[in-house]
Amino acid sequence: MSTSTAVQTSTINGEIGDDRVLVLTIDDPTQATNTMNDAFGQSLASTIDWLEAHRDDFDGVIVTSGKDSFFSGGDLELLRDAGPNDHAAISGALDFTKDKFRRLERLGKPVVAALGGTALGGGYEIALACHYRIALDKKSSRFGLPEVTLGLLPGAGGVTRTVRMFGVVEALTRVVGQGQRYRPAQALELGLVDEVVDTEEAMMASARAWITAHPDAAQPWDKNGFEIPGGTAASPGLADRLPALVAAASGRTPVKGAPMPAPIAVITAAVEGSVLDFDSASLVETEHCTSLACGPVSGNLIQSMFFDLGSINKGVSRPPAEPQRVPKKVLVIGAGMMGAAIAYVVASAKVPVVLRDVSIESAERGKDYARSILGKSVAKGRTTQEAADAVLSLITASADAADTEGCDLVVEAVFEDPAVKQGAFEAVDKYLTADALLCSNTSTLPITALAEGVSRESDFVGTHFFSPVDKMPLVEIVVGEHTSDSALARAFDFVRMIGKTPIVVGDSHGFFTTRVIGRFMDEAISMVAEGVHPSTVEQAALHAGYPSGALALMDEISLTLSRHIREGMAEAARADGREWIDSKSYTLVDRMVDEFERPGRKSGRGFYDYAEDGSKAGLWPGLAEHYVRADHGIPFEDMMDRMLIAQSLDSIACLDEGVLRTVADANIGSIMGIGYPAWTGGVLQFVNQFDGGLSGFVERADELRERYGDRFIVPSSLRSRTERYL
What we know:
By secondary structure, the chain is of the alpha/beta class.
């Protein structure tokens, strides 16, 4: 097919074929992906002007991309750095873009989005402004509007259009309220795309055919008599559902109260916009998006969940000179809950795995974990029986060491005892490949000491998984004194292969995550010891943004295990010459275990009482009876800050000691691994963004030290950095 040149700009070029179809290709030559930067904005404006001026020269438009992905979205560096003084600029930029999208969909010609790759955020909003969307069935492609996960909302028409496509309820619960990302088949089922094809040639041919068949295409909301599916917020019945909708769309109960404004803002924009005409609803959307973009939470989330996470996934902590290598056959030792789940995620990554335990019965019980998960997925239609059987066939349950022959990567997941762990490796050593990577799943035990019991210390590394493994996204890779760069790189590649996010930390007792999560629980339990009602302490944690109260979390871990970890960390600190500062929580925990015989949830008795099915039956009344004092004098704000600041201070100490290697690892590890409130951007971003900056954080920590003790001593490294700016 011959073509003639049409519009030509710095990032958008157009050609008209013999069939009078204009193909607009977005391709920013200065970037690996297309984003809504200034160059795109200027190109978009020039392109829309050209289309309107030459609409008689073509019969339809295909919008596609010259990149592997379609379009990545907004300029996140600009949005990350936006503040209150940028309100007019952000608002103006949104309205500028929305005006161009509106003119495109009202051009009077059929417009098709040919999505040859991922279209998220602003990229998918471009597709929404087209009349029809065709996606290439590419494994890596994702579609959706994930802005709420970055503290924003879809501000280039995403809320306004999806409410009119799906209705208020469906748009909020499936698209904009939680920021889901969908694979091509899922996007087709939901209606985010209208067609999925196998090749680029088929995608373009289908787009041309649709244009030919729909010469008078228009958006549904621009047609006479249009009504929003399910009605508007003023419709009878829908208003009554709004409280439940708020909880469902934001993914959390209304009582938690954490400072996460985006979920509520997107609900408000959808609800308000549903009772307005399209253009008025767009203005409401702009106002809510601008307010979020100019507030602190979106900047924190963009920094951590985009820039920090991106740098980790690109391998900032991986030795760059090492070649990529993934295992061909994996051995998981220990078929308990952790080992069984690790075996499942390895098999799900299409790698054969041997699940070994002391008996075949125990090993098969471990494999039952995978059978159960896959059975539920088949029952819910999320996978086929054939696909489930394929995963199960990759898991070999075994008690015979000989079955481990040829395994080139081992994950040991047995009891937290050095002798047991070292014995597990010794039993299979002769069957493994000569350079098999040896990984220990431990949450506390120093890797260097564990490595003394294996034949090849340089190939030994820690891989700390989090439970439940199939849902938790993080793995903490622990580098021992003798761990080689090759072993670290292979562990990193393995973690990425199974779809997890790796952070890399130095060796110590408790590493980063176990050590720092302990500070959260210590402060909460200390407040109970100081007289605060335990329900108030739990509410303070939830209000600060933690996903769980600290007392509930301690019950899950178990008070006995926590005490064991604490004693080990205290011993290690003293051995290293570091001061160990006692907490009032320690005597309370000891009393709970030794006197009250309430070791945690597993026994049905901890800080909470538990029903026979394991569900919480309420806080143990004896806790309040023995500890609550009306004159404790601790403000609610101090309760929240004590938890948040204690963890940040210890994280700075981890950075100083070399336990943490990068700020990105700290932020992502704290959010994904130990539930540090996401709105902060992570334990170190919380320090950077504190009111008053570093000086404000130090001043607040000094206040807490004066009131509550030396657990809030500011590390000299932070104080010296602060003083340089005074």
